[in-house]
Amino acid sequence: xxxxxxxxxxxxxxxxxxxxxxxxxxxxxxxxxxxxxxxxxxxxxxxxxxxxxxxxxxxxxxxxxxxxxxxxxxxxxxxxxxxxxxxxxxxxxxxxxxxxxxxxxxxxxxxxxxxxxxxxxxxxxxxxxxxxxxxxxxxxxxxxxxxxxxxxxxxxxxxxxxxxxxxxxxxxxxxxxxxxxxxxxxxxxxxxxxxxxxxxxxxxxxxxxxxxxxxxxxxxxxxxxxxxxxxxxxxxxxxxxxxxxxxxxxxxxxxxxxxxxxxxxxxxxxxxxxxxxxxxxxxxxxxxxxxxxxxxxxxxxxxxxxxxxxxxxxxxx
Length: 317
Fold this sequence. Notes:
- The protein has 9 helices and 11 strands.
- It has helices at residues 26-40, 80-95, 129-140, 168-186, 192-203, 247-254, 262-271, 278-297, 302-316; strands spanning 48-51, 59-65, 68-76, 104-110, 113-119, 153-155, 158-160, 216-218, 227-229, 235-237, 243-245.
- The longest helix has 20 residues, at 278-297.
């Protein structure tokens, strides 16, 4: 069973990517197969190609030849950099020796498309949630000297800045909440949203009294659609928006869209207990994602963003 089907967390799909592959796309698949063959040093012929559902930014396919199979993401040529930085994020997680991710093989562009070739994993919806909690704690123990990352990336299809910063509060204020609020203003969301945002930005340091985050390796977009299990029941995470930040930001997002299992949270807490004040800080962290949804999808997220800001400010009072 492919987990991707039916577990959709939509951002935006490029209308030019909606058509199924046809004979006119043969040069594209030939180019991808040639790159696979070169890197694996084993002839790869794209003899079996099937679309995979579940994403709304890219088109996705399973491509096979004999005992070889890969997961392919496609988009327009100008999105090659997005694929390159996704591959770099997956490699960053691989180096942490914590949770398994689909191993990237290559990326490239040609014939009007950019592509990313990944290890194909037959994903399952159920598995060892305890291992997922322990593995995430292990990943968060992989730390850096500063917050941010060596490259900017995206959260959904929104640019995400990761300029290195030694002060976490400054990083979150400027490169997360401040960035989304500025983007919202350019999209015409002014008035109450901006006035509440200004108050929150000026006061958000109070949520960190007695708490000093360390720069932990984060998945960055850890909602329920970005994890699964392999055939042996071991956890897999994918589609990251990697950076080094407060580990609570990852935990907060796991609670934003329905939450993970009780076994997951119990395992994480046993491995690395959360500190006092998390209940408030998780709202601050999830506000970033709600503002991102506002900027991507429109005004249906405006009231939720304003409500979250009011609640956070009321706690300061």
